[in-house]
From TrEMBL:
<feature type="region of interest" description="Disordered">
    <location>
        <begin position="1"/>
        <end position="20"/>
    </location>
</feature>
<keyword id="KW-0540">Nuclease</keyword>
<dbReference type="InterPro" id="IPR019292">
    <property type="entry name" value="McrC"/>
</dbReference>
<keyword id="KW-0378">Hydrolase</keyword>
<keyword id="KW-0255">Endonuclease</keyword>
<dbReference type="GO" id="GO:0004519">
    <property type="term" value="F:endonuclease activity"/>
</dbReference>
<dbReference type="Pfam" id="PF10117">
    <property type="entry name" value="McrBC"/>
</dbReference>
<protein>
    <submittedName>
        <fullName>Restriction endonuclease</fullName>
    </submittedName>
</protein>
Amino acid sequence: MALHEQTVGRSQSPSAPVPTITLTEHDETQLDTQLSERDREFIEQTLSSQQMTVSFDHERQPMLRTSQYVGIVSLPDGPTIQIRPKAAGDNLLSLLQYAHGTEATTIKQETSIQTGATFIDILAALYLAELEQLIKRGLQQAYRRSSNTEDYLRGRLDLQQQLQRQGPCATTFKCSYDELTYETPANQAILYTVSVLLGLVSDEDLGQSLQRYQTRIRRRVTLRSVRVQEVRDIELTRLSEHYTAILRLTELLLDNAHVDRLERGNRDSYSLLIDMNRVFEDVVERAVRGALESRTDWSIEPQATRRGLVTGGSPSITMRPDILVRDQYETVQFVADAKWKTPESVDNADIYQMVAYQLTDDVSGLLIYPSQEGSLTTNYAVQNAGELAVVELPTRKPAATAEALGTRLERCLNHRIRQLC
């Protein structure tokens, strides 16, 4: 998942409308106009080849090709490019909400973030909903070690510093002490993310709401650039566990972030692209956990490392199925793998991969795709490894809420797992 913003001036006049191109995943289109040098540099330097590529036909006309990333790209001199998921229908917001475990049940902008909304506004609305829940519960404080010169002795006297700087007849004291503060990595990361979103949203109500929360938080927290690794390193306690959902969204938004300017309105070129493969993996993991909730004797191991089917040689071969399910005796019951793609038929490479996972533990398997109107659903028999069920999750069928969508996905998987095991 990647978020990039790079502010440069467009050569077009501010009032000139910027054309928008709408594509889906794994799509391509020929641009009517030539890309400027700045546009090509932006694509080549800011976007990875896995996110979007540009090639040229025999007439040197630029061709844009998308991958499994969805979102929005605004080029410095060229069009704004929106990339929408094929298999989500109008459920993109609910899928993101379900995948990241957000518990906010009311999103004020819900009616305005359906099919016609920008991708950034969808994420901003989701982030705002979680931010409102966090503020209601209260920002968490933590103790931080401070070292200052004080008029009165406070905490521990730094004797060496005291003698070096003031001598034996000092009128002030060099002290070290623990101070309760809102200046925590979690609060700084949230403030930074709000500031990034403020520079990108187009919905006026969303922008005003984010602005209000930014102002409130900045009274207590210093704005600084926060790296995504800092978010990953945050360890929550029982008292701060209400930060879990919003920090997952914060990591999603800041992953591979590059932000030059945060002022609202400076949105001449930027991109916000999310890897739907990873989103779908999170959706499937949560849906499997929900489907197996009554099986308290089973445990789920995501991204499990498996060895043994192929040995010797260099480098060693390691396999990582998305889901590995064990019973109370640590015996593997089945494996599952999620594929966010919409092929016309089941992909042979996906089958070969699943068979390898199954043969490693001699178990049955689930190969899980998003909705394809039933065209992929089928069952295979794998010699010495039981059944391989190809399952389509109903990701496209309209759902009123993320909870309703999750219930539907979990019921679908519960039914297929019961058939399998």
